[in-house]
Amino acid sequence: MTCFGQNIGKSEKTTQIKVQQIKINSETLYAFTSGFAQSQTIKELYLIHCFITSDVLEKGLIENISQNKSLILLDLSFNLLNGQAGGLIGKLLSSHSKNRDDRIWLCGLRGEVPENDVNLEGICELNLMGNALNYKSVKDLCYFLQFDGWTRSLNLRYNQIDAEGLLEIDKMLDNNENLISLDIRNNPGITPNTDELEKFGESLKVISKRIFDKLIRNIKLFKEKRENNKFQEVQEEQNEEDEGDEEEEQKLVCYITKYIK
């Protein structure tokens, strides 16, 4: 398995890896992901229904994936992740965010623009559907997400998130303006008949509307940023064309001046 992991790191063509319905322990997972730190092509990693616990996640995955700079999508759906997993995954997202922030900062010091889209140099999409994430998981994860500027999509469907967890998500979105896709359906605290929120002086309808409105706000901001980036690209292209025209004009002037002399 270690050889396989190292080959992944050396591969220049492998962009997606999917492992499904295979029980994986921490040693196997660590060996399997050993080449991820060096890989520059892996974009998507699917570990679905692999009986991964929070302990296996911590010992077998976090270290190697944290060092990777090409992974965009991480799918850990239908595993056994519980209360401890939220903080671990939050740290993983934080390390990817730091890598991108450092890259932008260094380019800024040099007066350069990153050659590649920095958005695509770390996890943007995270699927945690069908685990056992609870209030503690969500609280720990939201602590990191409130400072996260890169994660766009998060799937928390079919977990054990209660009403307090829903309130943590709502609070996190007060600060997070980058998350544009969030699935929290089929959780105990988010069912139409739940009365848990009443003890917090809230109603499911009201808090769901708040979360929805904040996601709509983020989507609008995302579109504005994208349009601004497109405008800047057009301006840069136009400036390059103008510079080229000026060079041609200078050559023409020099040629005419030389001819007159």
Automatic annotation (TrEMBL):
Record InterPro entries: LRR_dom_sf
SUPFAM superfamilies (alphabetical): RNI-like (SSF52047)
Protein name per the record: Leucine rich repeat protein
Species in which this protein is naturally found: Ichthyophthirius multifiliis
